[in-house]
């Protein structure tokens, strides 16, 4: 199946921990796992097929794990396990490196070397939660000796390329249930490019990336820059190209693989921001023109024209209709019925 997810709560208590260990062994790699919560183990595992890659989502209480030389000899998928911590606190050791991780960190380990890990749970940290991208080592276009320098290190994913990769993993898993086979394969290719680019950036080894991966990485950086600067009226293809030290011609070439031009992408994102803000009751004191200025569309006439072309209504109509909805939802149930009857 393309996407599967299972929760130990569906099993009798005495079967939960054994099932969990088997699921991890089959989905990641054979591993010795122990836990003080074994008598009533509460955890879940979801797996998404991304063509050449696999993405796993896990939630579990405090536990200890070890991958020994014996287990490696028994079975080795020969993967890099790129792990994004979503919640809880974890420690990981491989080779000479040991690190402690918290939500927002990425770490990397390989199935082909001994490994140990520990997850801590408690009233403050809660259960441990993670996304694991399984990368076949043969597909990663970086020398193993260089990648080895990153194993069991904490790699921040709260900004820059780390955040690009973290957002990609999260959104891919969030849409898992509705992705068709072709979309999943395409996401797998994109995930490989982003992961390899992220690792290459950390190693200052971009020269090892194929042109396609470098272009995908550059596009991801451009996307982050555009989203963060939509309020700037001076956000133009020329400004974007200058910021990323490329020509405007190359920028347009990069966007040819997409359905939108650079300018159309900026315009769509700005209008989406206005559309959402016009429905926000917290922003009712701002004029429509002020809302537009928040998204780099300070010309009221131009905003109205583009908004109507995109959504079929004027910005003011969007605000009035949502204001009416908010007023109705704030009325008691009896008053809503009376109000509707009066309208009829």
Largest sheet, in brief, is: 7 strands, antiparallel
What is the total tally of β strands? Answer: 12
Query: Which range best describes the helical content: under 10%, 10-25%, 25-40%, 40-55%, 55-70% or over 70%?
Result: 40-55%
CA distance, first residue to last residue: 52 Å
Stretches where pLDDT is under 50 for at least 5 consecutive residues are 336-344
User: Helices and strands: which structural class?
Assistant: alpha+beta
Principal-axes geometry comes out as: globular
How would you describe the overall organization of this protein?
- This protein is an alpha+beta fold.
- It is built from 13 helices and 12 strands.
- The strands form 2 sheets. Strands 1-3-4-11-6-9-12 form a 7-stranded antiparallel sheet, with helices on both faces. It has a 5-stranded antiparallel sheet with strand order 2-5-10-7-8.
- Helix 7 packs across helix 8.
- The chain is globular, with a radius of gyration of 25 Å.
- The C terminus is likely disordered.
Provide tags for this entry.
344 residues, alpha+beta, seven-stranded antiparallel β-sheet, five-stranded antiparallel β-sheet, globular
Topology record:
Elements: E1 3-7, H1 13-27, E2 32-34, E3 44-50, E4 53-60, E5 63-67, H2 69-74, E6 79-87, E7 89-94, E8 97-102, E9 105-110, E10 115-120, E11 128-136, H3 144-147, E12 155-156, H4 160-174, H5 181-203, H6 211-228, H7 237-243, H8 248-255, H9 262-277, H10 288-294, H11 300-311, H12 315-330, H13 333-343
Antiparallel strand pairs: 1-3, 2-5, 3-4, 4-11, 5-10, 6-9, 6-11, 7-8, 7-10, 9-12
Helix pairs in contact: 4-5, 5-6, 7-8
